[in-house]
Recover the amino acids of this structure.
């Protein structure tokens, strides 16, 4: 065979190989493309388009970049933004102290048309939180702790997931506090347009807990001034009480680890709130030793189903932690 | 022949390409960038070895380009206010300024020598491309590459036509009539310092640096953890040229960084971005009427990349008069244009071009400029 013929044959073979073997994307490429395109869409707040694109490639539970972007997409639909949180809200956290400022976040001021747990923006932000809380494919009945997530991601990836989680947890907890404490725009409990001065009804909690509630500063001076959605007999009362418990427990677990690695600038506004929360938790376990697993539960499914958790422990939690943190 | 076929088959099947965002190359000719990067079948300047080693086959003489720095970056002509009083220690304010705005800084030099069908280039190239995306929880995409090394190549010719020779009285080349089929190979060694990753603006890695006011590029590089590595790479090419009278038709095919050029890490903890294999094809048509000549070129590249097919099309044109050449083109759907001015010992090329930094065709454009200066380059026939 002449050299010219040999080269021509090789040329044709290479062209054929390229045509046959260079088409189509594999799953990894599709996910990478979808994640990049979703981030481009989120740059202009095209929330639903980003959600649709990311869900179309299937949940990638071990892909930190994908999960953070998907979480951002649902948070976008909830009208949340970390940029806005840092620009406008984080500095408000402790004013009024200890944590009444969380009820004054911009995300806390959104009008809630129905019950908070049925509000679409609250549900979307909770979805965004759960995507990262259970990142790695953690089952909803497994406690989504920092160490559990660390099994599936590198230290840097897990650290970034925890940071993104922390800011959303603060925003979501602030919404919950604003709604159930009826704190109006001032962050002062009971100053809103509702009739309640407390989060929930404490008439069935142990006497020591009721005494503690009565000793607190602020509007909650009686034990039966409950928000209607958390009142005895309210629909989904246990589910709603659990939402507050798992949010606060997750917040307390993640906050110290994030603040330890980035504490300057705006982070200074939240660097000490872990102490405030932990102090109340210590009081809770001292005043109510039977609190048990309620003090640490972070799985909504476990909180709702566990026999060790009941209305007594749940209301005790609210009495000693939530009622003390917003006055 | 069977063994060669098998080898080629496995090269394509098992080279796992993960092109996302911008297609990255080691060296790009500034002239090519302004011609829509449709250069596989043109490749007749000092950047031949970065496009198609087979194009060395058209060379008859000696050409030497000793000093050729280039500088490029984001075309921010309409956006200078964005960078005035740039906030240093407020991540929310930084995000506000640069969200969804691609920032690029590039500087390079590719001195080279061609002697007949042999070519050699040294190179040093630094490229930093950054974009902050996602208005909800901003993520900084960083692609930083500092490459140093050399490449050397050779072309083997079949046929005695379509060679370039210098016209002695003017600084132009003349193409001899006839046909030529060339096959070329080049080998390169690269030392790369690089990062190619995503970083949360409000994540712990960056947040500390920003809060302490350290937002200079070098500080960020240190914080993000660049790595260094070395690699050898191989390129192959083929070129067919047919010249008759003032006309020259060329078709080219090149496979650059066969099997992906993978770096052995010598320093750092992060991953060094590999140089992914690209398979490039192109055709070009040139007519030279003495004082005026023009070139039209069309490329499909990189053919093997899992990107939208529309992104693979590149069209270019240039029109030359003595002392000045105008370039224009379309690359991935984005317009490029510029000009070259030649007055020995200076050759200056400058212009603007667009690059796709999304995943789909015309999803997100990075608008860039390039300025190239070549000093004391010369060539003569052997």
């Amino acid at each position: 065979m002449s050299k010219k013929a040999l080269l021509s044959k090789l040329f044709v073979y290479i062209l054929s190989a390229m045509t046959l073997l260079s088409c189509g994307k594999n799953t990894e490429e599709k996910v990478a493309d979808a994640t990049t395109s979703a981030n481009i869409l989120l740059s202009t707040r095209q929330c639903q388009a980003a959600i649709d694109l990311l869900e179309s490639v299937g949940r990638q539970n071990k892909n930190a970049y994908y999960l953070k972007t998907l979480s951002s997409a649902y948070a976008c639909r909830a009208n949340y933004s970390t940029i806005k949180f840092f620009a406008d809200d984080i500095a408000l956290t402790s004013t009024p102290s200890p944590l009444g400022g969380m009820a004054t976040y911009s995300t806390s001021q959104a009008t809630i048309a129905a019950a908070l747990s049925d509000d679409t923006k609250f549900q979307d932000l909770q979805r965004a939180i759960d995507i990262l809380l259970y990142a790695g494919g953690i089952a909803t009945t497994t406690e989504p702790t920092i160490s559990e997530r660390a099994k599936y991601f590198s230290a840097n990836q897990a650290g970034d997931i925890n940071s993104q989680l922390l800011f959303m947890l603060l925003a979501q907890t602030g919404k919950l506090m604003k709604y159930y404490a009826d704190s109006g725009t001032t962050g002062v409990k009971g100053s809103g347009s509702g009739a309640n001065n407390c989060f929930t009804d404490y008439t069935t909690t142990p006497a020591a807990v009721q005494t503690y509630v009565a000793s607190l500063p602020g509007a909650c001076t009686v034990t039966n001034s409950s928000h209607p959605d958390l009142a005895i007999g309210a629909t989904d009362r246990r589910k709603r009480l659990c939402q507050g418990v798992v949010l606060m427990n997750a917040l307390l677990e993640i906050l110290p680890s994030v603040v330890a690695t980035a504490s300057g600038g705006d982070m200074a506004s939240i660097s000490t709130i872990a102490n405030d929360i932990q102090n109340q938790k210590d009081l809770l376990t001292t005043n109510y030793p039977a609190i048990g697993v309620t003090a640490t539960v972070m799985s909504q499914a476990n909180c709702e189903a566990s026999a060790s958790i009941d209305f007594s422990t749940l209301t005790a939690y609210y009495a000693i932690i939530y009622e003390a943190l917003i006055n | 022949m069977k063994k060669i076929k098998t080898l080629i088959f496995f090269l394509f099947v098992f080279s796992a390409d993960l092109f996302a965002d911008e297609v990255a190359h080691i060296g790009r000719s500034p002239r090519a960038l302004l011609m829509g990067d449709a250069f596989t079948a043109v490749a007749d300047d000092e950047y031949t070895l970065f496009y198609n080693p087979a194009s060395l086959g058209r060379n008859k003489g000696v050409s030497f380009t000793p000093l050729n720095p280039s500088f490029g970056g984001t075309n921010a002509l309409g956006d200078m206010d964005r960078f005035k009083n740039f906030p240093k220690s407020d991540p929310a304010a930084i995000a506000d300024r640069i969200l969804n705005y691609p920032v690029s800084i590039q500087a390079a030099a590719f001195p080279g020598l061609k002697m007949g069908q042999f070519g050699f280039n040294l190179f040093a190239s630094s490229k930093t491309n950054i974009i902050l995306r996602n208005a909800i929880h901003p993520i900084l995409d960083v692609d930083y590459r500092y490459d140093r090394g050399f490449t050397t190549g050779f072309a083997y010719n079949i046929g005695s036509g379509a060679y370039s020779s210098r016209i002695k009285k003017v600084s132009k080349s003349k193409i001899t009539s006839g046909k030529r089929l060339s096959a070329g190979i080049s080998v390169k060694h690269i030392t790369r310092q690089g990062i190619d990753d995503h970083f949360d603006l409000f994540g712990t890695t960056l947040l500390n640096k920003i809060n302490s006011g350290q937002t200079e590029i070098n500080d960020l590089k240190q914080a993000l953890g660049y790595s260094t590595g070395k690699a050898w790479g191989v390129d192959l090419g083929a070129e067919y040229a047919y010249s008759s009278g003032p006309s020259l038709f060329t078709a080219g095919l090149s496979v650059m960084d066969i099997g992906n050029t993978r770096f052995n890490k010598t320093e750092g903890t992060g991953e060094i971005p590999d140089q992914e294999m690209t398979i490039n094809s192109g055709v070009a048509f040139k007519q030279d009427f003495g004082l005026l000549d023009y070139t039209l070129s069309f490329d499909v590249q990189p053919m093997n990349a899992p990107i939208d097919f529309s992104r693979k099309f590149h069209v270019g044109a240039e029109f030359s008069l003595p002392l000045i050449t105008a370039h224009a083109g379309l690359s991935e759907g984005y317009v490029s244009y510029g000009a070259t001015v030649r007055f020995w010992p200076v050759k200056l090329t400058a212009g603007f071009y667009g690059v796709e930094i999304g995943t789909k065709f015309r999803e997100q454009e990075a608008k860039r400029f390039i300025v190239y200066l070549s000093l004391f380059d010369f060539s003569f026939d052997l």
Remarks:
- Chain A touches chain B through 59 residues (CB under 8 Å).
- The first helix of chain A runs from residue 3 to 21.
- Chain A is about 55% helix and 0% strand.
